[in-house]
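Subgroup meeting minutes
Present: P.N., E.W., G.H.
Scribe: E.W.

1. P.N. recapped why we're keeping a running log of single-chain structure predictions: easier to compare across weeks, and new members can see raw inputs and outputs side by side.
2. G.H. added today's entry (150 aa).
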Amino acid sequence: MRTVVQRVSKASVTVDGSVVSSIGHGLLVLLGIEDADNQQDIDWLSQKIANLRIFNDDNGVMNRSVLDINGDIIVVSQFTLHALTKKGNRPSYIKASKPEVAIPLYEQLVQNMEHLLGKKVGTGIFGADMKVELLNDGPVTITIDTKNKE
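Output recorded in log:
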């Protein structure tokens, strides 16, 4: 699993002109899934995201997690995070999972995040043409890859 985690002041997802999710202060998580991903990736990644200390404490130091600030999360599926760009100028998405593999993994990660946060997590609509709006706070943007845990 590959993610882009963005600390936001607000974020929303719109499909066909209707807002399907919106949050205030918290995290926007763009999630790419590949066939090699499994429950271990989901468990590790959901813990990592929930506990990532990227929110300021009283001294202005990034020392708090989304859990600590009681923030919100939106998780948006984004197959383009697995784009291969080595050859030519047109990215290949062959590493990105097909919906029959990706949807159950995506839904499980969302459920894990809801369990950890103790509240609903916003989502997009898998496979839809989504418009994602955000106000990046900081800006703070972190990439995480479960196959390359650096």
